[in-house]
Amino acid sequence: SATGKMAASMAHEFNNPIYGIHNVLEKILRRVKLGVNNRRFVKLAIQECDRITGLIRKILDFHSPSPENKERMDVHEAIEDMVLLVQNSFKERNIRVVKEFAVDLPCIEAVPDQFKQVILNLLQNAGEAIPKRGGTVTLITSVLENNVQIQIKDTGAGISKEVMKNIFDPFFSTKVAVKGTGLGLSVSYGIIKKHHGEIMVDSFPGRGTTFTLFLPIKQETPVALPRRA
Ligand SMILES: Nc1ncnc2c1ncn2[C@@H]1O[C@H](COP(=O)(O)OP(=O)(O)OP(=O)(O)O)[C@@H](O)[C@H]1O
Ligand SMILES: [Mg+2]
User: Fold this and answer.
1) CA-to-CA distance for 108 and 75, rounded, in angstroms?
2) Which of 151, 60, 148 is nearest to 99 (CA)?
3) Helix (H) / strand (E) containing 190
4) Ligand 1 contacts CB of residue 187 (under 6 A)
5) Which ligand is closest to the CA of 207, given by its number?
6) Structural domain total, the chain
7) Is any atom of ligand 1 closer than 6 Å to the C-beta of 137?
């Protein structure tokens, strides 16, 4: 759509200046002798840059065209990459990651960046749902018929029936404004649909939530029709 293209191009244009600001701040942090407080301010500014970059990413993903550059992709490798990204913040918050990976999981055909974005969104949501005292995020993979099944299970707050109705809507968030833009799940939904997959959710308020992804191992290739004589 026209608004989609507009949003995507604007998001793209924002990227460079933010990157510039980020670099300058990094340089200041490295080269300038700063007091404890000022260091904290600069670090905060860097974090805010990263937050804008993340938001831009989501807007771009949201409006990304159908994936054309799909490739054979190792699901476990992609998941491991994203676990590395959240590792530190999870550790700080007493969140344990448990992996129950299937042996010999077949590859899927996917756009790696987009698939990783989905996993990251789900990991972040799982982490954000877990209370201060800590908890567990379990990652389970398996094969189900012609699909790879990926589950991300948390021992967090869960999702009430009322909230459940809206979670895949763009800009729906129950989090404070600085934390949530409400794009994570709607972006993820779009990406999974473009990969001919499914995303499902099960939740027990107070006990936790499980998100389940199904992604086809083999994409349907159009069958060549026999030519009429
Ligand atoms: N694992 C989860 N446990 C509990 N609630 C969840 C979970 N995942 C999503 N939700 C609920 O769904 C809402 C929408 O999630 P979504 O990822 O789209 O947005 P967000 O996390 O609020 O913001 P953003 O992802 O843009 O930072 C969340 O605000 C939260 O209420
Ligand atoms: Mg989110």
Assistant:
1) 7
2) 151
3) helix 184-194
4) no
5) 1
6) 2
7) no
